[in-house]
Amino acid sequence: MPSQRSMMDLAYEERRDLAAYLRTLSDAQWQAPTLCTEWSVKDVVSHVVSYEELSILGLLQRFARGRVVRANEVGVRDFASYTPAQLMDFLEAHLRPQGLTSGFGGMIGLVDATVHHQDIRRALGDPRTIPAERLERILPTIPGNPRLGAGRRVRGLRLRATDVTWEHGSGPEVLGPGEALLMAMTGRPAAIDDLGGAGQPILAARLR
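The line above is the sequence of DinB family protein; the predicted structure tokens follow.
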């Protein structure tokens, strides 16, 4: 049996795929809204790369400036002067996560890039199939991640993916594609119509 590839390798591949997709976008699409409230495609890409070169001191300063909970917004503002071409150059120079996004063996970078890749694609009406290996590695990390708030959204529900091997919890069932479960767990209402089961209305209400 082949050995399981590292989170870091999967994060690299996800960022590589994201970069390849971004290279196909028009100037207008770079300014288009995404599933992230008030963030354009350019803003989302700025967020994805905004932690890459921060030292420990720089990270602490970022958190202080954003009073922790607004640190992501501070990072987006720091990259506001970058053009899409400059952001692409920066992303392609950092396909392998560094700094904060390399945390937990690359798990932070993998989750962040995958979710935000979908934030962009769903908003632009350009769906894709996330490779099953990546989904099966990501999904188990989401419910217990305190930064994502998924635990409170899925409490008392049983989630089951219909296209990859993953299930979680107990209670009324929410089932559907792993990508839609990922997006719903991370707070994206746009994914709820792709899910079914007796627990779907409960999850939908929590996302509202």
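Note on the example: The chain has two domains: 7-124, 132-206. The longest strand covers residues 158-161.
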